[in-house]
Amino acid sequence: MDDERTEAWWARRAWALLSAVRERSPLVQRITNLVSMDIAANALTAAGASPAMLHCLREIPDFTPRCDAVYINVGTLSEDWLPSMRAAASAGRPWVLDPVAAAASGFRMESCLELLVLRPAVVRGNASEILALAVGNPSPPPGLPPPFPLPRRRRRGSPERRAAAGDGGGEDLGVDSSHDSGEALQAAKVLAQSSGAVIAVSGALDFITDGEQVISASNAVAMMQKITATGCAVTALIAAFVGADPSDALDAAACALAIFGLAGEIGMESAKGPASLRMHLIDALYGLDEQTVTSGVKIALVL
Ligand SMILES: Nc1ncnc2c1ncn2[C@@H]1O[C@H](COP(=O)(O)OP(=O)(O)O)[C@@H](O)[C@H]1O
Ligand SMILES: Cc1ncsc1CCOP(=O)(O)O
Ligand SMILES: [Mg+2]
């Protein structure tokens, strides 16, 4: 990476990529969970992309090669959908993986690892998902320290609520993260080197790495975690950015995360809670202009 990548350079890059999405309206095939279908399709449409949900195996040979990018999300994985995921990932188009709750079951972890071999351009997950994938990955690259010991899981909710619910500190297998993004940074680098994918870890601070460089994106508001499937939606936006300009998946992922977070920040100015934030975030994404993007995105080279 050259030294020219200043804050101002990233601001221009983010605007250029959002403009490319608006001009080219990339067709993004999404094989995704039943929860995120609506919010992610609306986020993509508001950003200027063209989302299409197709998961029938028989349609993939006709449809997928004509897409600009493919988005695969295992959130409501089923045995029926896995062959379609494999076929779409193998269709020769740039594709992006969201490993929702990768550690929820052996089947889900095996499926994620199998898909990882099919060379996604980007994998975006929360910290717990990226840690789980890195630990589950059987072939870490030689010479790199493994991401062990695993950071301790942070339990959700107040201690009082957890005690009342009889929470004795057992495994947390849900879709939300019980780790901070920084705790998964080493795991993300290891995973990027072993898979060849750009790995994006979302959180209060988003980290994006190709295994060498590490970029941070620090837009977004904590309330976004209270809207289901915001993670799925931002991964879909990454796919749209990759589809509009496949030349650099690291830039695409960093800029998409920052722009989605910026839309959350603007949306929060009018929101009263998660439900209205969902609406205002999508409105903000639609209304972003050059001045707002170039003065608002916070992207930086960390390493
Ligand atoms: N603590 C936080 N503060 C601010 N923004 C956050 C925080 N955690 C997550 N986000 C943002 O919320 C969006 C979804 O990320 P995340 O909640 O990590 O994904 P997932 O829904 O897959 O668990 C991202 O845009 C991320 O930047
Ligand atoms: C709640 C839920 N259950 C299966 S998929 C899903 C949505 C997950 O969305 P996200 O990963 O963005 O939190
Ligand atoms: Mg998720």
UniProtKB/TrEMBL annotation:
<keyword id="KW-0479">Metal-binding</keyword>
<dbReference type="Pfam" id="PF02110">
    <property type="entry name" value="HK"/>
</dbReference>
<dbReference type="GO" id="GO:0000287">
    <property type="term" value="F:magnesium ion binding"/>
</dbReference>
<feature type="region of interest" description="Disordered">
    <location>
        <begin position="135"/>
        <end position="179"/>
    </location>
</feature>
<keyword id="KW-0418">Kinase</keyword>
<dbReference type="GO" id="GO:0004417">
    <property type="term" value="F:hydroxyethylthiazole kinase activity"/>
</dbReference>
<keyword id="KW-0808">Transferase</keyword>
<feature type="compositionally biased region" description="Pro residues">
    <location>
        <begin position="138"/>
        <end position="150"/>
    </location>
</feature>
<comment type="pathway">
    <text>Cofactor biosynthesis; thiamine diphosphate biosynthesis; 4-methyl-5-(2-phosphoethyl)-thiazole from 5-(2-hydroxyethyl)-4-methylthiazole: step 1/1.</text>
</comment>
<keyword id="KW-0067">ATP-binding</keyword>
<protein>
    <recommendedName>
        <fullName>hydroxyethylthiazole kinase</fullName>
        <ecNumber>2.7.1.50</ecNumber>
    </recommendedName>
</protein>
<dbReference type="GO" id="GO:0009228">
    <property type="term" value="P:thiamine biosynthetic process"/>
</dbReference>
<dbReference type="InterPro" id="IPR029056">
    <property type="entry name" value="Ribokinase-like"/>
</dbReference>
<keyword id="KW-0784">Thiamine biosynthesis</keyword>
<dbReference type="GO" id="GO:0009229">
    <property type="term" value="P:thiamine diphosphate biosynthetic process"/>
</dbReference>
<keyword id="KW-0460">Magnesium</keyword>
<dbReference type="GO" id="GO:0005524">
    <property type="term" value="F:ATP binding"/>
</dbReference>
<keyword id="KW-0547">Nucleotide-binding</keyword>
<dbReference type="InterPro" id="IPR000417">
    <property type="entry name" value="Hyethyz_kinase"/>
</dbReference>
